[in-house]
Amino acid sequence: MELDNNNHSVFSLYYHLVLVVKYRRPVIDDTISDYAKDMFVRLGKNYNISLVEWNHDMDHVHILFKAHPNSELSKFINAYKSASYRLIKKHFPQVKRKLWKEYFWSRSFCLLTTGGAPIEVIKKYIENQGMK
C-alpha cells in the first residue's frame, strides 16, 4: 500500500462519493459528465482532493477520490455541487427542460470511506495490542 504524506503525518484517505441528480432526472450524458468531472478536478485542488476514478449513469455519478487529513470534505462537496449546478445549467441549456428549479443535484449525497482492512480485522488488531 502506498501512503501519502505531509510534514507531520502519513495517510491513505480514499472516499467513494455518489451524487444524484434532483428528482433522479436522466440528464447526465458523456459531455455533461466530462464537464462535471473537469470541474471536480479543478475545484478539488483547492481542497487537497484528487480524483482517482469517475463514472456516471444518466441520473447519478460515482466518484473515487483521495484527500489529505486537512481536507474539509463537506465544504468541498457543497462548494462543488453549488458551482457545478450553476455552470452545467449555464452551458447545457437542455438541462433546464428537465430540471426547471434552481437545483441540479439532490440535497443529499453518499460518502463512504474505502480501502484498507475490513473493520473486523482492524478491531481484532486493536484488541490484540499489548498481548504477547
Automatic annotation (TrEMBL):
Query: What InterPro entries is this protein classified in?
Result: Transposase_17 (IPR002686), Transposase_17_sf (IPR036515)
SMART domains with a match to the protein in the record: Y1_Tnp
Stretches assigned to the Transposase IS200-like domain: 10-129
A Pfam family matched in the record: Y1_Tnp
**Per the UniProt entry, what is one GO biological process?**
DNA transposition
Give GO MF terms, alphabetically.
Answer: DNA binding; transposase activity
Q: NCBIfam families, alphabetically?
A: transpos_IS200
What is the protein name given in its UniProt record? IS200/IS605 family transposase
Q: Supply the source organism for this entry.
A: Fervidibacillus halotolerans
Q: What is the lineage of its organism?
A: Bacteria, Bacillati, Bacillota, Bacilli, Bacillales
Gene coding for it: tnpA
